[in-house]
């Protein structure tokens, strides 16, 4: 990958010029070059610097809390080996997604992310339909991401209550949903702040995320007697198939949900590009570094959790969450209840950043007349210089998805799979468009400062497409057998249903006014 230097003179910029960055020019010069090249007027205020941008990218994955939320899936479906090796495998292959999306974000640093980039990556005659498909998949995945992370946070809070009460407490679906909805409202108000306030608020997220992760690792290793630690054979090779499927291999692969759900929303930092200084370099570097860091530190945390865990028959415990149960057994109830609020705080930060990114996508979609709202959600508040209507629309849509909790636990957890599947497919489409049409006269892909080169870029993009196809198939499987309405994986049903309805709407009505992402 290369990070190229650029001339300071933005007057010579044109649509086929490189978006480059230099330490000699000001960030305002670089950002002005981006806006000039695409003929865009930035309606936001650029308040995110390098640290707050990296913290945003790292926090959107919420490594520690995301592992806590999804740890049951690999451990209880595929066993310890699924926890360790699915994370390792996913981390390695997800670098191809991170690098591929970072390259596109660097070339097209606009608030619509991969949705807006599709305007430049497809010929004019396909631009509208490509933008429509990518936009709806990205929007659906992001709303599912906000809803699933907030639901996970509510579950973690109730798990702490169960630990404190030694399991002598019952959480009803109504209680679960009430806390979930209340947290959404709190995040709605926080995201109604000015961009400057959001940047200041975001800046410290990364330190808490990484710091608490290492505190948990150190405490588990220090407080677990050597004789009680699991063997290397148990940690790295034990497969415990509790899925009901005859195939141990398939049960093992269900562990991919944890890493794929954690490492998603790659282009979230792109959605705040118009709020980032020197976005063409800061956004992709923050994105790729966050994927790499999350993969390495997350793998270490997973290994330590399995190493220090009690026998798998004792999990997930009375709280219903294996992660906090392992902490309770090894660190004690008091120590766990001291540390756990910080794990919940990480999830709180994750929703905060996810909601901010999601609202910018909805803003761009509405602005381009892709919604029947007459551009209402595509307006910027004159008081905060942020899309307030889009923020509260995302809160409402996420609250509606949370109603699946009243159907069954399997139904609501399908939101987790839907988040990863919808988003990852939305990332594959512009990458394929870029390669197929990169020399088309309507496209002429021009790299940004983050550029892998032709040979390495082709290899990484091919790996990305193949890996995404594979993991999306796995995540669409029901995780338990025998299959019934209560354990059906509804992620593919909802995703396909929404896309079919969007296609019907497009050809019946929206096609008349929607011409693709605004250039």
Structural class: mainly alpha
Tell me the count of domains.
Answer: 1
Biggest sheet overview: none
What's the end-to-end separation, in Å? 27 Å
Beta content comes to: under 5%
Which fold name fills CATH's third level, the topology?
Amino acid/polyamine transporter I
Instruction: Give helix % range.
Output: 55-70%
CATH superfamily: Amino acid/polyamine transporter I
Number of strand segments = 0
Global shape: globular
CATH class category name: Mainly Alpha
Order of helices and strands: HHHHHHHHHHHHHHHHHHHHH
Give the number of helices. 21
Question: Taking Cα atoms only, what radius of gyration do you get, to the nearest Å?
Answer: 22 Å
- What's the overall average pLDDT, rounded? 84
Low-confidence stretches: 2-26
Architecture in CATH? Up-down Bundle
Describe the protein in words.
- The chain is mainly α.
- The protein has a single domain, classed as Up-down Bundle (Amino acid/polyamine transporter I), CATH 1.20.1740.10.
- The protein has 21 helices and no strands.
- Helix 5 packs across helix 19 (409-436) and helix 16 (322-331) runs antiparallel to helix 17 (333-367).
- The longest helix has 41 residues, at 124-164.
- The protein is globular, with a radius of gyration of 22 Å.
């Amino acid at each position: 990958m290369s990070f190229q230097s650029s001339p300071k003179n933005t007057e010579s910029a044109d649509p086929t010029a490189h978006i480059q960055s230099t330490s000699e020019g000001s960030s305002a010069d670089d950002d002005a070059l981006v806006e000039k090249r695409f003929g865009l007027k930035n309606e936001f205020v650029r308040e995110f610097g390098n640290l707050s941008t990296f913290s945003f990218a790292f926090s959107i994955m919420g490594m520690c809390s995301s592992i806590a939320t999804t740890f049951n899936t690999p451990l209880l479906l595929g066993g310890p080996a699924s926890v360790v090796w699915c994370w390792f495998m996913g981390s390695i292959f997800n670098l191809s997604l991170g690098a591929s999306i970072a390259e596109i974000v660097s070339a097209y640093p606009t608030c619509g992310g991969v949705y807006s980039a599709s305007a430049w990556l497809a010929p004019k005659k396909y631009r509208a339909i490509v933008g429509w498909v990518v936009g709806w998949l990205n929007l659906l995945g992001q709303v599912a991401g906000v809803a699933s992370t907030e639901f996970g946070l509510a579950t973690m809070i109730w798990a702490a209550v169960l630990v404190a009460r030694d399991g002598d407490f019952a959480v009803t679906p109504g209680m679960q949903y009430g806390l979930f909805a209340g947290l959404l409202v709190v995040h709605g108000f926080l995201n109604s702040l000015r961009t400057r306030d959001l940047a200041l608020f975001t800046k410290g997220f990364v330190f808490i995320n990484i710091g608490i992760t290492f505190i948990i690792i150190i405490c588990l290793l220090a407080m677990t007697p050597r004789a009680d630690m699991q063997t290397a054979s148990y940690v790295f090779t034990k497969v415990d198939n509790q899925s009901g499927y005859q195939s141990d291999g398939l049960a093992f692969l269900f562990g991919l949900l944890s890493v794929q759900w954690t490492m998603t929303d790659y282009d979230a930092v792109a959605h705040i590009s118009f709020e980032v200084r020197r976005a063409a370099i800061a956004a992709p570097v923050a994105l790729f570094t966050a994927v790499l860091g999350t993969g390495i530190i997350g793998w270490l945390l997973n290994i330590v959790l399995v190493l220090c865990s009690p026998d798998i028959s004792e999990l997930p415990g009375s709280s219903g969450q294996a992660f906090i149960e392992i902490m309770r057994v090894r660190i004690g109830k008091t120590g766990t209840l001291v540390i756990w609020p910080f794990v919940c705080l990480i999830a709180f930060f994750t929703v905060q950043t996810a909601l901010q990114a999601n609202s910018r996508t909805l803003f761009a979609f509405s602005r381009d007349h892709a919604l029947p709202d007459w551009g209402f959600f595509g307006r910027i508040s004159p008081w905060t210089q942020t899309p307030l209507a889009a923020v509260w629309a995302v809160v409402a849509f996420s609250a509606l998805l949370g109603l699946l909790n009243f159907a069954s636990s399997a139904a609501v957890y399908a939101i987790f799979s839907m988040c990863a599947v919808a988003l990852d497919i939305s990332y594959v489409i512009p990458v394929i468009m870029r390669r197929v049409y990169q020399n088309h006269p309507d496209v002429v892909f021009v790299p940004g400062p983050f550029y892998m080169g032709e040979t390495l870029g082709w290899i990484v993009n091919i790996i990305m497409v193949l890996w995404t196809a594979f993991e999306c198939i796995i995540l669409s499987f029901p995780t338990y057998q025998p299959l019934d309405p209560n354990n059906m994986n509804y992620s593919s049903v909802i995703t396909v249903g929404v896309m079919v309805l969007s296609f019907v709407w497009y050809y019946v009505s929206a096609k008349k006014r929607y011409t693709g992402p605004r250039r």
